[in-house]
Protein: FR47-like protein
Organism: Propionibacterium acidifaciens F0233
Amino acid sequence: MPHTIPIRAASDRDASDICAIHNAQGVATTASYRLSPGTAAERAAWLARHRREGFPVLVALDGDERVIGFAAYERFRELPGYDPTVEHSVYTAPEHEHEGIGRALMTELIGLARRAGLHAMVGVVDADNKASLAFHEHLGFTICGVLPQVGRKFDRWLDTAVLVRLLDEPPTGAGERRPRS
Ligand SMILES: CC(C)(COP(=O)(O)OP(=O)(O)OC[C@H]1O[C@@H](n2cnc3c(N)ncnc32)[C@H](O)[C@@H]1OP(=O)(O)O)[C@@H](O)C(=O)NCCC(=O)NCCS
């Protein structure tokens, strides 16, 4: 029987753990184009904004109920014609990569998006982040294009891949179970 990873909605007290994971996995690398470490106060404001706008933030927990990963989505772009689409982010703590945590978080997040009646989920991923690209393809995302040199970090230009997962289509990725026919 596969091990079940506990996942719950994030609360205000998770702000510093989420911040620490993102600083380690995103700011220290090109996984995120943020240039300097974030603070717990900024994450608390981010959590409050998601709550106000009705967008979920999920956290994954270890056996001692410590936060070891998070995933969230929010509005893709401002104009109302984009309302059926959201953009997500997902990060696993460095010492817990490859344990199925990202998959568990994204499976739950995609389920919430479907139940909210959303149509598409967009991932914006550094084009050199092979692990994240493979992870997203595994979950049924399609790489739709690469925007060349739209980012700059560590004194070099960065290419950005845009991935889309249509939510009302049957799963195509190996990471989600297909419905029985
Ligand atoms: C990318 C990330 C979110 C994946 O989460 P994870 O918990 O490590 O991934 P999982 O263990 O759930 O992997 C699920 C599947 O994704 C694929 N995958 C994950 N990591 C991979 C890697 N390094 N290389 C190739 N495939 C990978 C595999 O198909 C895997 O399934 P398998 O274990 O049956 O082979 C996580 O590693 C992470 O936070 N990395 C650093 C920050 C980052 O890049 N975040 C994404 C920003 S866009």
About this structure: The longest strand covers residues 142-153. The mean pLDDT is 94. The CA atoms of residues 149 and 159 lie 5 Å apart. The two ends are 23 Å apart (CA to CA).
